[in-house]
Structure formats: C-alpha cells, structure tokens
Hints:
Elements: E1 14-22, E2 31-36, H1 42-46, E3 48-55, H2 62-76, H3 86-106, E4 120-128, E5 131-137, E6 141-146, E7 149-152, E8 158-162, E9 165-168, E10 181-186, E11 192-196, H4 198-201, H5 206-214, H6 225-240, E12 247-256, H7 263-271, E13 283-284, E14 287-295, E15 299-306, E16 311-318, H8 326-339, E17 362-365, E18 369-371, H9 372-378, H10 384-403, E19 406-407, E20 416-419, E21 424-426, E22 433-434, H11 435-438, H12 468-484, H13 492-495, H14 499-503, H15 519-528, H16 540-548, H17 550-557, H18 562-565, H19 567-588
Antiparallel strand pairs: 1-12, 2-3, 3-4, 4-5, 5-10, 6-7, 6-11, 8-9, 11-12, 13-14, 14-15, 15-16, 16-17, 18-20, 19-22, 20-21
Helix pairs in contact: 2-3, 5-6, 7-8, 10-12, 10-16
Amino acid sequence: MDSPAPMTAANALRVAVGQCTSAGRKATNQDFHGACIPREPLLGVKGIAFALADGISSSTVSHIASETAVAGFLEDYYSTPETWSVKKSAQQVLAATNAWLHAQTRQGPHRYDADRGYVCTMSVMVLKSATAHILHVGDTRIYRLREGVLQQLTDDHRVWVSRDRSHLGRALGFAPHLELDYQTQSLAPGDVFLLATDGVYEHVTAEAIVDALTCAPDVTPAAPEGLDRAAQRLVTLAYEAGSDDNLTVQLVRVDAVPSRQPDEIAAYAGALPCPPLQRDGAEFDGFRIVRELRASYRSHVYLAHDIDTDTPVVLKIPSLDQRHDPAYLERLLTEEWIARRIDSRHVVRAWPRVRERQFLYIASEYIDGITLTQWMHQHPAPALAQVLPIIEQIARGLQAFHRLEIVHQDLRPDNVLIDRKGVVKIIDLGSIQVAGIAELARDGERSDILGTAQYSAPEYFLGESGTSRSDIFSLGVMAYQMLSGRLPYGTSVARARSRAAQLKLAYVSVVGHDRDIPAWIDRVLSRALHPDPQARYQELSELTYDLRHPDTLATRGDRLPLIERHPVAFWKGLCLILVIVIAVMAARQ
C-alpha cells in the first residue's frame, strides 16, 4: 500500500486503512490486494483506490491473474484522463485487463478450459469526494459498517447447481467480454468498508465482524495500526473456524469527507482576489492590456500582450456582478483547467502559466479571426461546399471534448471562431460539463441551464444532464442556420418543458426553400435535430460520414424505423390505431 500523503487541506478526503492476508491451510496464496492513496492533485480528481482479487483454486496460474489484475488496476487507473468519470476509467482498465488475461489463457495449454486458466474474481472500490464507487465481478465481497449495522454491498456471481455445488458465473479473464457490476454509495465520516475473500466471510458471522470492528479496544484509535489488528483478528477467526482457503481482509475507515470541488481549482478560487476592471494600457500580472474585446454580465474579456514574450493573449476576468458567486468562479477556473487538458487544433488553448498569479482570471491564446455569427452575416447564402468544412472542423473539436467525457453545453455561433486561414476553433469553455468533476457534486445538486436557449438541446429544458448527443443537437442547429438562415424550431424548444410538448416539435425541411440544398443533407439535419436524444446520431463520426456519403445514407435510410424516418406520421398512425381499438372494445360491451 502506498503511504498516505500528508493532508494539509481542511476539506481533504482522509481514510485509515488496515489489511491482512494469509495462505491459510493452502501452500500458495492466490489472493492479492492493494491500495493507493495519491497526493494532490490526483487525490481530488481520481480519488483513493482499493482492489482485492481472488484466484480460482482449480487453476495453478490464477495467482498470476489476481496479482496482475490488482497491480495493473492501481497503476493504470491513475493514468486515465483526469476528466473521465471513475466509472469509465475503472471499466476501461478492467476491460483491458480482462482481455489480456483471457488472451493468456487462449495461448496456453488449457485454452479450452477456463477453470484452469488466468482467471480471478475481483472487487474494486474508489473513494472520490463524498462517494464510494464500487465495481465487482465474482465472489469477493464488499461490506459497509455504518452506525453498528453491517450491509453487504456486492452480490456473488455464483451459479448453484445443487444445495452444495456451485460454480462462478462471472470472473475476470473468464470470457472475452467483461460484465461488471457498478454502484455508488455515499460516504459519511465513521463509515468502515470491509473487502474480503470467500475464505473469510464464509466462516465469520456478521456479528463477529461487527464485534471485531466496534468492540475491540485497539480499533477505535485514529492510528491505522488498530485496523491492521482488526483485519488480523478476522483472518484468525476464519482460520480457527476451519477455513481451508486463502484469507484476505481489507478495512477502510472514512475519517473525513471533503467538499466537492477539485483541490487545484478550489485552491485558486479561495486564495486569489478578483482583479479590478482594466483600462487600455494598464499592466498587471505581467500582461499589458490592449483593449476590451467584449463584456457581459458574467465576464470582461480583454486583448493583452504578454510583456515577457510580446505575444497577444486573451484575458477573462469576472464581472463585478459575479465575483462573489463561488459557483461562477469555480466554472471560470474550470474553463482553463479543461483547456490545458484538451489537445486539438480546433479548441482554444490555455496560455502557459509561467508566473505565479496574484489575481483570479484565466488566460488563453489570441485567435485573429471572426465569429461564426459574423461569418454568417458576411455569407447570407453560402454554398454547401463552404458550410461542410466548417461543420466538420467544429465536429473534430467536439470529438476532442467527448473523448475526455466532456460536454460543451453552450455551442453557438458566438462561441466559434474562424481565423484568417480558415481554421475553425471552439472557444468559451465556461459552461462545460466534465464527467470527472460532475460526479463530485452532492446528491440533488443541479445547475441551471448554462447554454443559450436557441441552441440548447430539448433535454436540458426537462432538467436532464447533457450528453455528447446534446452537443450534436447544437451543432445541427448551427448547420441548419447556416444553410437556411433560420433556426429549425424557432423558440419552441425552450417552451417545450415536457415530453409531450417535445414530441409535438415538428422539424421543417430546408429543402424547397430559396436555396439549393440536397435532400440527403436535410436527412442528416433532421436526425441530428431530433427532439429525442436516443434518435439522434450517437457519435459525431456518424454525422460527418453521412455528410460526405449520400449513397450510403440513402441505403441505410431504407432500414431506419418509421419513427425515425417520419416521426409525426408514426405518432398519428399510432393514435389512429388506438382510437380503432378503443372503438372496437366499446362496441363489444
């Protein structure tokens, strides 16, 4: 286990850990366990990870599987992008481990006998902010002791063929594809989590576990040695009760639960003052103000020069109305935090932080160009050949977000810049939703709609969280506007605050107006702009492919269900059928 990092922040997640493992009456210990308590900033954005694996007794190589699974998870989990959610990070790592173990079995002498291959059961727990994320496959178990009540959190994946005979239904390395259980549990100070293999829990009663964790005088002190002794006690009890299996126990006590914001962002939000509004020619923090680019109720944006390099840069500082709003200041700093983690030609880049800052603001590269709004004014009736490259470049920028589990949420023409070389860049990341940060929010927390109503997807107005399909809808709105000069639904989307109202939204074709737009482009737009996110394109790559391959689109269109090809006709037909059924039933009475 990694040594705990010193916790200096009052709101840091703090835990105490105890663990014990023994081969028991067996010659070889096929169990493997581990934990990692990283230092900041990983502690805040990735959390504390625990893993326990149990090799199957019928295999002579399963100890390799359990050791590989635990060691690989604890190393690779922290190498996944900081923006990913715990669920995606853990699932990706465990799926890769499963594929490797299964391949090792297929290449060995027992390629057709998984019971003698590289197979193990596994339970993983990641504590992040105020939440425990639990992933599980097999028959290792995780329990939680809260206020004297012991609760089993995981279910065993065993198939019972008789009262005394069973076999594993799922395990790591057992099949080419991995099916994991995933759940979350809230954390509270004083919670104790128990991870154990079947050699322990099958021979120790729940009462004995509670007694070991609450009644022993050496468990209550804050020192982790008390938990080590409690783990040892449970292993000893199982051995004395006749267990003939390997014995492993991990204990995790939650001593403090943090606030929701990542440590790096919280440190700046709480420690730095907001700067005064700037005048042309003013200097601060190594920048010289050239002029104000724009101002809104949320922020003031300036063109400045980095004095050290004489390079143009854009500075954004909070407006006077927003500088006392902690949520806004957090979003502002998150904007730069994200820009440093996205590497795309089509997304604005954060300015390198080479000096210690004295004020709260963000800095980004300066892009010499015009907004998409200005471009549309200059090109009121653009040709399709002019529009498609812009759509594709925006899509490539969005793909960089979506690969990191980030949703832009405020994609609109004013937030898209086109430079003098025709390169399109997405700017203004202040409304972004990051999966890895969103899961830090307390239960029940929900922010207001941050995007612009005319370009926001319908699901936002139902109080739902945005997904990558929400960004696809916004991209579809801009494409529709460039080609037709109007919005696809006008202002109706913002007024549709129920499912029923959204089902009445009628897409108006862009074909047949005063512009020469092919019918297949209209089909792409109608799908991207569907009110139901499940009926839209699932990936941006599908949309951009269809924009350039009308023949493939036409062929696939014949296989689309009626509800996607003609949603209004589908619902009218369904209503007619229901009326007929009701009439027939009434006539029979």
